[in-house]
Every structure is written in C-alpha cells, then in structure tokens.
Amino acid sequence: MNTSYDVKFWEIRRNQSSKTPSYVVRWKVGGRQKSKTLRTKALAESFLSDLRQAAKQGEAFDLDTGLPVSMIKVKNATTWYGFALAYVDMKWPHAAAKTRDSLTDALATVTPALVSENAPYKPDPHVLREALRQYALPPASRRLDPPSAIRSALTWLERHSLPVTDLAKVRNVRLGLDAITLRLDGEAAAATTISRKRSVFYNALQYAVDLEELTSNPIDKVKAWRPPKVREVVDRRIVVNPRQARELLTAVTYVGRLDRGRHLRAFFASLYFAGLRPAEALDLRIQNCYLPDEGWGRLLLAKSKPQANRRWTNSGKAHDDRGLKHRADDEGRPVPIPPELVTILREHIEEFGFHEDGRLFRTSRGGIISIGTYCAAWRAARTFAMTPEQTASPMAARPYDLRHAAVSLWLNAGVAPPDVAERAGHGVDVLLKVYAKCIDGGAEIANQRIEDALTT
User: Using CA atoms, how far apart are residues 399 and 248, in angstroms rounded to an integer?
Assistant: First the structure.
C-alpha cells in the first residue's frame, strides 16, 4: 500500500450536476485529488469529519483510495464481527470516554444477534456480552489473556458472524434492531437506551455505505419497526424555584462527614446560579473566576471533567479532560454570575482554599469528586429540605436538575433565548425545544388572545 501524510481538505459543496440534492466531499492525498458524493449535507459533514480526525491523529492515507489506513481496515473486513472491531479502532482515538462506552455497549448488543441463522452451540448471552465488552471491542483489551470461556465465545463469533454484505437484507438488520429492544434478562430496555443503541448501529451501517460496502443504509428500509418515543423536553416537575433551591443548598451543609457537605454547597450553587453542568463545575478553577467585592462576577469555563469507566479513558483515570460540550477543544464559555454566587464562591475559597492546579472542588486528597459522592450528598439534602411527598416526587431528583432550574428561571425572567443559550452552552433551537414546557405564561397569554378574539 502506497501512503502519504500530505493531506489537504476543501469545504463541502453542493453537487450542481444532479437534480436531486447531494453534496461533494473533496480532498487531496499526496497531490492526487479525491472526491465522494453523499446524499445529504449531514452525511457529507460526518464523512469529512472522519477524514479530518484521521489526519489530526497522524494517520497515513492510501494514495489509491484516498482513505486513511483505519478506514481501509474497516473496508477490508468481511464479517460484521470484523467490521465492528475495525469500526471501533477507527472511532476510538478521537472519541470521548462516554462515547466509547456507548459505542461498545451498542455493538456488544447487536453483534451476537448478527450471526448465521442455524449457528450451533451458541454461547451464553452473558458470556458473549462480557467477551465483546471487556475483551474484544476495547482496542487495548485485546492484548489481555482471556479465560477459556471468553476465547471460545469469540471464536464462535468469528466463525458464525454474518458477512457485512448480508446486512443489506432487511430481515438480517432486524435481528440487530430487535436485540437492542431487550435487556439480557429478557425485559424491555428503556426508551433512551434503545434510541442510543439504534443511533450507534445506524451510524456503523452508514459508515459501511460511505465505504461502498452497502449501497444504502438498510435501517431506512425497515418499515415495521419503530423505536419508542424518547422524552426530549425537560419535565417541569423537576424544576425548583429560588426559595426551594436555597433551602436545598442550606440542607447540603448538614450532610456528610469532615465538612463534605459544606464543601459541596458552592459546587451545587454553581449548577443553580450559573447553570453549569456538573462536569464543568468539577473543573472550575480559581484563575477562571472573577469574583468582585460587590456586583456581578464572571466565570470563564475552559474544560470539563466528565466521569466514565477507567476502561474508556485515555488516562486510565475515572475522569477525562475534555473540551466544553458543543465547543471547539480550545473554545471557552464566559458565564456572568449573580452577586449571590460570587459571595458563595468567595466564602468557599476562604474556608477551603483551592487545589495547587486551581480547582475549587476536590476530595480531601485533592482528587476529582465522583458522581457517587455528590449524588449521595444530594439525596441526603433532599430528605432534610423537602417534605416526604416532595422527596418521593421527581422534584430536583438529580443534581443536574439544578441546571435545568437555572435555565428555566432565565427564560421565564424574559432573558432573550440567544443570551440564555450562550450562558448555558446550548444552541438556541435545542434550548427552546428542551425547555419548551418550562416556560410559564404561554397558555395564559394564548387564552387571553383567544378570548379577546371571541368578544370582538
């Protein structure tokens, strides 16, 4: 294979020679121009993104096909099992830890279903899942020496996995779709789980289309299968008002040992008064805080620390260093903060100081606070601050619901949606879609307008 690291990309352009809309991805490898036409702009952007990521990772590109070596490996896979492994290898270097988790979770669900119809001696489903999830799919885990049962399960998959080209048949792709609707115990999977796994499965098949192993995505041909509806809007029952939020923040100071609750008060306050995501608050540093003696302050968010299984992170630690959601890797987000949060953060710094790297929130040994730790403190605070009926309700059931309450408050206060979206790190369209049911007064205004019209 003749390869080159000399790669140049151009912007996507509309295909003017076709009556139906299509889009052309153009790039150059070692001076040779390459192009690929895709049906939609979204597909073209996804394909171009994969090419750019491969170049960013320092991959060599094949001069003949114009594809990075990792794509060639996927293209050369003959069975679905081989395709899944190569697909993970291609995605892994530039995927976030939680994306890797979702990727392997979904592929570990569909791959055992995509086997020959009469394959004998099928291993136990739990063994197959462990074999894929813990040994075969994560690239680094393939170097491990698995138990004999795991080796036998993987050998069985290699032998009986369907050819990739057989996934063009609707009856075969339905096997994968049906698999994601069930848990290992045979019970129905949650709607969000089904939607997430279907998305991974769809994208993997679309990649096979991009590499011309399939002529079209076979999931598009499945007419009798419909994923369950997933709630895409925030349930207004979870949203607390300012008085309730302050009571919860006070209650947090009474939970835990060794001042843990008092230490977490400012963490939770950052979620409510600034609308931060928990992962963003965990990486909040003194050098990114402007906290004046009086008036409004400002936070300049730079990074986040999402938590995932150590198996999925590059560092081998539970928390990854990531850029901000919906932002370029080096793009920050300024967030104005009200005087009340300025005071809380100043009090926190005076009492607890900060880590040598500037982080405001950390464990007693300077580590990253785990999800389990702050969620346990939050559950305890709810029992102190709420009535038994409220505790049993979904009201502020998760720390993340403080962020939902913050964004809902801003919208109801009349802050312009673009300004709210900028503070929260959302797109305006997503913001209005997600928080549509949390905006007060809309029904009353509509009722009054209808009444006025009826009386004229």
Answer: 11
